[in-house]
From TrEMBL:
It comes from Neobacillus ginsengisoli. It comes from the Bacteria. CDD domains: HTH_YyaN (cd01109). PANTHER family: REDOX-CYCLING DRUG-SENSING TRANSCRIPTIONAL ACTIVATOR SOXR, TRANSCRIPTIONAL REGULATOR, MERR FAMILY. This is DNA-binding transcriptional MerR regulator.
């Protein structure tokens, strides 16, 4: 079992973030007799997964929906699968857009480098020689 400060350190997030995720019902940690939050290895695995979903632009509302579906049991498997498949499509679109943007940047950078080379070719020769 891990205290909230330990989990925050392990995951590289603030305790505020973990409390926020709890408030949003993305994670529900156990509690000890004095009410302190306790996290298990399963909680850590779930938080790592949820944080990856967040990093890939899945809205917290959808992460919460997934968590709620999971907590309801196996009969929600198809709904969870659909949610993840839809998100994968979103990620694939993000990747496509990023690749296209990278290509545009490469072209623009090459054009600027060529322009700078042509501004003063004699100083470029001195730098290269």
């Amino acid at each position: 079992m891990y205290a909230i400060s330990e989990v925050a350190k392990l995951l590289g997030v603030s305790t505020h973030t973990l409390r926020y995720y709890e408030k949003e019902k993305i994670i529900i940690p156990d509690r000890n007799a004095t009410g302190e939050r306790l996290y298990t290895d399963a909680h850590l695995a779930w938080l790592r997964f949820a944080m990856k979903l967040k990093q890939t632009q899945m809205p917290l509302a959808q992460i919460r929906e997934y968590a709620q579906l999971y907590s309801k049991g196996e009969y929600t498997t198809k709904a969870r699968l659909k949610l993840l498949e839809d998100h994968r499509k979103s990620i694939q679109n993000q990747i496509k857009n990023l690749v296209e943007t990278e290509k545009m940047l490469e072209d623009k950078i090459a054009a600027y480098k060529e322009f700078i080379r042509n501004l003063n070719p004699s100083s470029n020769d001195q730098m290269n020689g």
